[in-house]
Amino acid sequence: MALINVAAREIHCKIVYYGPGMGGKTSNLQYIHSAVPKEVKGDLLSIATETERTLFFDFLPLDLGKVRGFQTRFHLYTVPGQVLYERTRVAVLNGADGVVFVADAQKHKLEENIKSLKELAHNVTKMNKNFREFPIVLQYNKSDLPNRLPTEKLDAFLNPPALNLHWQRYEAVANRGDGVFDTLKAISRLVISKL
Amino acid sequence: MDPQLTSVIVPAEEVAQIEECLAHLVEDTQGNHALLLDKSGQVIASQGDSSRQDVTALGALIAGTFASSREVAKLLREKDFRMLFQQGVRENIFIALIDEQWILCIIFNKGTHIGLVKVLTKKATDELSGVLDRVRQQHRARDDVLGSSFRTSMEDTIDLLFRD
């Protein structure tokens, strides 16, 4: 939940990037870190293995400055995507105000995407939150690759109209920044609308 | 709206009480720094060494440590670990959970005995638990605090800053 400190006139929101391993969650944060003005960003903190895979989380604090007298901060986190680290994902998800689900658009990753999204639904529900009401934005990453699934097919599995969730979704190529800010803007606006 | 999604609003009076409590804890233990965090890792208040620039990152990491230890506890069929102690060569960190929602953290050096820290932290967590109760009970509407035009201004700021 967001935290509003009336004395210090500060607002803190937590956004978590969730999704299957090697999907591009860390790339999203790295691109944001490289592209936002330096007065907005803090240090990008990564707890990774020796092979640069996320072990615990990446953390990027963003300070949006004063909005109507309130210093507004967004804290972005990633979770480790590998199946092995489910307990770690639960730990990082704790207290999140919104989630960006980074799906890997490649054909052979569809099943992993579905599993990861199901796990997210389970974990959000376990935190006593209503998954249907929870702020979520989808990102279909690696959309430049030739073996990617068409958007309609990804929608059919990850954002099925029958479920009536109608999450906003963005195509992205996170390592070169395409779609990264569209996604961040969408989740930020959604989180702010629920404050 | 889902009650879990509503914001936690910490009023000025409660923030002042929290800061006073943390300042006492630092003074009485001769510690270096005390922090109160939300379990999501956000820093609610911080007292002590004013040169510390890394408080935000510290908050995120300590909350991560705590959340991780809770998952370990569950595997051991414990509900959670109420306290954690991390010992360094120069500095130590003692962390205690308050009512499942807040985390109190004190950083101190080898001149301070851990037993004293434990006793005084227990006293502080009892006091902070009372403050947390009051924070939970107050129901101020978001618009009373932020003003009704906050959302529009926020959206403008987001559009301005989050772009290539």
Notes on the structure:
- The complex is a heterodimer of chains A (195) and B (164).
- By secondary structure, chain A is α/β, with parallel strands linked by helices.
- Chain A contains 5 helices and 8 strands.
- Chain B has one domain (3-161): Beta-Lactamase.
- Chain B has 5 helices and 6 strands.
- In chain B, strand 5 (91-98) and strand 6 (102-109) form a beta hairpin.
- Chains A and B meet through strand 1, strand 2, strand 4, strand 5 and helix 2 of A and strand 1, helix 1, strand 3, helix 2 and helix 4 of B.
Please trace the helix and strand order of chain B, writing H or E for each element: EHEEHEEEHHH
Number of domains of chain A: 1
CATH class of chain A: Alpha Beta
Largest sheet of chain B: 5 strands, antiparallel
Tell me the number of strands of chain B.
6
CATH topology of chain A, by name, is Rossmann fold
Give the spatial strand order of the biggest sheet of chain B.
Answer: 3-2-6-5-4
Compact description:
The complex is a heterodimer of chains A (195) and B (164). Chain A has 195 residues and is an alpha/beta fold.
Chain-wise SSE layout:
The complex is a heterodimer of chains A (195) and B (164).
Chain A: E1 3-5, E2 10-18, H1 25-35, E3 45-48, E4 54-67, E5 70-78, H2 86-93, E6 98-104, H3 110-126, E7 136-141, H4 151-158, E8 168-172, H5 180-193
Parallel strand pairs in A: 2-5, 2-6, 6-7, 7-8
Antiparallel strand pairs in A: 1-2, 3-4, 4-5
Chain B: E1 8-10, H1 12-29, E2 33-38, E3 43-48, H2 55-75, E4 83-87, E5 91-98, E6 102-109, H3 114-137, H4 142-146, H5 150-161
Antiparallel strand pairs in B: 2-3, 2-6, 4-5, 5-6
Helix pairs in contact in B: 1-3
Salient structural properties:
heterodimer, A: 195 residues, alpha/beta, Rossmann fold, 8-stranded mixed sheet, 5 helices, 8 strands, 30% helix, B: 164 residues, alpha+beta, Beta-Lactamase, 5-stranded antiparallel sheet, 22% strand
